[in-house]
Amino acid sequence: MIGGKYNVQKELKAWFSEAKRVVVAGIGNPIRMNDFVGVKVIQDLWGKVSEKVYLIECETVPENFI
Fold it and tell me: Which residues contact 35 (CB under 8 A, 6 or more apart)?
């Protein structure tokens, strides 16, 4: 914590620092905008994460990607 606030970026970096590979699955329905956040997060991460991170836009069928 920094000044009583939780530093998510620092904590995630520490947690994943020794990971060989990380998968982030974006789940949501693009038709229902309030349910689209998972896919939007993935779209916003493209080109901003290391090559260790595998991004998947699962939309409403994450079971098809497992």
Answer: 28, 29
